Amino acid sequence: MNKDKFHRAFGVYGIITIDNALVVIMKNGGPYINRFDLPGGSLADGEFLKDAIIREINEETGLKVSKLNQLGTTSFRYPWHYLDYEMNQHIAVFYQVSEYEGALLEKVAQFDGQDSLGAVLVSLNDLNEQNASPLVLKAKDYLEHKSFATEDVEYQSWHVLSDGEQVFKHSEITLEK
């Protein structure tokens, strides 16, 4: 494997359930565009993990987290042709959110770096490889089995969805930049 062909991403992600459904964002960028994804993302310079996940969840869902627990870290590897890279390795730290306040926002503020159009609740039964990111599938596995598996996951292929293949409807969402 030529390590120069790997794009690496690192982020923190939150698992939040409401009424037996998973809080997911409507992704508007990267290899998970047009799919459901977990709220979360990259750290700002010098930002602690806990501060980053609390900030990201608020920016992407409108919820204000007051209690959470780190579950573990894993990575996902799959083909993704991006810039000069041929593969992506996404390293993710997962958190279970147990206390929060506020209302879930189906439309969130848009700014440079924002890759969420807003958040929705989706039943675990309705989440699959065709409509969800690997992060969501890991969260689904955790919630169904009550155990967080830290083994890395490799996909032999990964289909980046075009706007025509989008799995959510956001016709009422306006992008304000």
Features:
177 residues, mainly beta, five-stranded mixed sheet, four-stranded antiparallel sheet, 14% helix
Describe the fold and architecture.
The C terminus is likely disordered. The longest helix is centred in the N-terminal third of the chain and has 13 residues. It is globular, with a radius of gyration of 15 Å. It has 177 residues and is mostly beta strands. It contains two helices and nine strands. The strands form two sheets. The protein has a five-stranded mixed β-sheet. Strands 2, 3, 4 and 8 form a four-stranded antiparallel β-sheet that branches. Helices cover 14% and strands 39% of the residues. The termini are far apart.
What's the short story on this structure?
The protein is mainly beta.
Structural class: mainly beta
Q: Give the CA-based shape.
A: globular
Query: Radius of gyration from the CA trace?
Result: 15 Å
Helix tally? Answer: 2
Q: Runs with pLDDT <50, length 5+?
A: 171-177
Percentage beta strand? 35-45%
The side-by-side strand order for the widest beta sheet comes to 5-1-7-6-9
Note the gap between the termini: 39 Å
Percent helix among the residues?
10-25%
Order of helices and strands: EEEEEHEEEHE
What value does the average pLDDT take? 93
